[in-house]
Amino acid sequence: MARSEYILLDDVHRTYQEAGRSHAVLKGLSLAMNSGEIIALLGRSGSGKSTLLNVISGIDKPDQGQVVVNGIDLTALSERELTLFRREHIGFIYQFFNLIPTLTARENIALVLELNGYSPTAVREISQTMLAAVDLSQAADRFPDRMSGGEQQRVAIARALAHSPGLVLADELTGTLDAETGQLVLKLLQKLVSDQGGTLLLVTHSLAVAKTADRVLTLEDGQLAEQEGSFAW
Ligand SMILES: Nc1ncnc2c1ncn2[C@@H]1O[C@H](COP(=O)(O)OP(=O)(O)O)[C@@H](O)[C@H]1O
Ligand SMILES: [Mg+2]
Questions:
Q1: How far, in Å, is the centroid of ligand 2 from the Cα of 43?
Q2: Residue 82 three-state SS
Q3: Residue 230: its pLDDT value, please?
Q4: Which one, 16, 23, 112, 223, has the greatest CB density within 10 A?
Q5: Beta carbons within 8 Å of 188's beta carbon, 6+ residues apart
Q6: Closest among 218, 117, 149 to 157, alpha carbons compared
Q7: How far is the CA of 137 from the centre of ligand 2 (A)?
Q8: Considering the entire predicted model, what is its pTM?
Q9: What is the distance between the alpha carbons of residues 49 and 109, in angstroms, rounded to a whole number?
Q10: Which CATH class, in words, describes the domain spanning 36-61+87-227?
Q11: 165, 90 in Cβ contact below 8 A?
């Protein structure tokens, strides 16, 4: 079966103004990512990894170049359309969890479903299923400040995947976890995304994690470079 391209970036430029000086972060970056693919993205701090995820999810706009996700040209969308696009197609897992502190684990997961217009029954059932999938059924009614880092991260994963998004973006999600917990969380994420037939772009510093991806890309000097399979870790 032919695989379709889920992400197509062409000649993307993004420059920030800092203290009156311009700082080019993405410099003619291109990327083609297939539907169902898992890509690990490496790059030193400040190389533009988060900027790239923000451009792909429409949170940030490129100064120049094309951004097409699931056949939709993001540069042509209004802010309102971008919000709806993100809500439907993207699951975003932030580096620092970003759970809503006043909502329980269950409510954090339910929110995105409610915003997407799911029926109350569907919201209840899917929230339950996702909590079970990340092994947190017993923590459903707990607030984020009563959960460990690993537990919060699993809630963040459940929340990002609840509406079965075509594309999951994960930004250094194990940065604050110990190595062993980080490995478990990443394995779980990869399994859940694969089960849903989703596409995963994962920022990581872990070579062990990168090894399990279909492809490994490095962001360097504003562009992406591919690591070949024979690369010795
Ligand atoms: N909103 C912004 N305004 C100004 N500079 C920014 C902004 N976002 C990121 N940058 C700068 O862009 C560069 C890349 O940042 P980032 O994408 O966060 O890198 P990474 O995620 O790889 O660490 C950094 O030098 C950062 O300071
Ligand atoms: Mg970052």
A1: 9
A2: helix
A3: 46
A4: 112
A5: 134, 154, 157
A6: 149
A7: 31
A8: 0.93
A9: 26
A10: alpha beta
A11: yes
